[in-house]
Amino acid sequence: MTKPGEDGETMARGGASATYREVIGLTGPLLPVMSFLARLPTATIQFGSVLLIARTSGSLAAAGLTGGALALGQVACGPLVGRLADRHGQRAVVLVFALANALAVAALVAGALAGLPTPALVVLGAAAGATVPQIGPMARARLVALARRTGARESTVGAALSFESTLDEISFVLGPALVGLAAVTAHPAYALGGAAVLVGLCGTGFALHRTADVERPRALRTPSERGTGPAAPRIPRAIHPLRAALALQGAMFGACQAGITALTERLGQPEQAGLVYAAMGVMSAVAGFSMAVVPSRVGLSARWRAATGAAFALSLPLLWTDGLPALYVTVTVLGVAYAPHLITVFGLTERVVPPARLAEAMTVATSALVGGQALAVAGAGRLAESYGPAAAFGVASLAAALAWLIALAVRPASYTGRTAGSERHARVPERPPSPSG
């Protein structure tokens, strides 16, 4: 075990690159590549389904209903995927859902091209969302579990969360960009077809990787790992403010999307909306990657308050933004707050939940984020149509303010200890899987 302050000294000597090399060393280089390619379809199918249905049916209403059903399916069934993974292990669960998702996305493409009626497309969209294999949360839970089992430093655990959040950010920038490119050059069906292939192949590779054994099914764990009796250990109440904060961050991002879309359309340059999203996502990814250099003496509760406060302050200029150059600058700067908040809240989540329910907790957190975003896109979009882009940006600022108030209101002591039990460090680590790809 390291001494207090040793994390910061190590970071000062080796820098972020050394810490990220340590993170990649936990799994080998192949797993991050597979997990990135396997989570890319999740960022593709939401936007891609809307463009596909709009192109094939000529109805924006049908496209919106299908996209909404897809988001609802993902939000509703994401926690179930995590719960099943905690109980039966990631290998079987991710394998089944990856193949099912590939089939569901392919069926949605085929149905759209065949001109199926809107109700059938909505059902297919819901199936595509419900079968998302949740690769991002699973990868996050797997990497953190590997770090804990090998007795890694807290800075390494934090860097693991930063690394996974950065991969998420890159995927959610690249996914819509690929869909837009396919729509302009050929047809959105190509993007969704590629997504089906990627999730089938790379999701299978992620499921079958030897590190999938890091979290054994609960039935195979020792009594001390399972907790008292056969029932799963309870998740503490301290998790609820974290989930609310993620839902509000999703709402902030969704409202920003609606405002950006409305403003670029008002300026007569709707094609710029995707590039503005990309600028925000790139800055967020850079900020997330840089989180590894934050000294360990800056606690997670302090980081949470700083990130939410920064998001609120940096969102306020959007209310007075009315030109494209100003929009690019304001949104790009705002991206600085996104990934640090995600990384911090996921880090706090890992601290308070029992290890036996880590995958479930990560998928619930992701569902809260996706759900908040979907609701805000719909609500703020209507406000933007009626009252202009500033109304949507106002929703984003309000969501950021509420997230900040939550961070200020909670007691930091609730997140300093490991309420899941001290066995996380006291447990004698088993021999970890080989890091070779």
How are the SSEs ordered, and which strands pair?
Blueprint: H1 6-25, H2 30-57, H3 60-88, H4 90-114, H5 118-130, H6 135-149, H7 154-185, H8 188-208, H9 223-226, H10 239-266, H11 272-290, H12 300-315, H13 324-352, H14 358-387, H15 389-409, H16 423-426
Give a quick rundown of the structure.
With 437 residues, this protein is mainly alpha-helical. It is built from 16 helices and no strands. α2 packs parallel to α7, α6 runs antiparallel to α14 and α11 crosses α13.
Structure description:
By secondary structure, this protein is mostly helical. The protein has two domains: 18-217, Growth Hormone, Chain: A (Up-down Bundle), CATH 1.20.1250.20; 237-419, Growth Hormone, Chain: A. The chain contains 16 helices and no strands. The longest helix has 32 residues, at 154-185. 55% of the residues are buried.
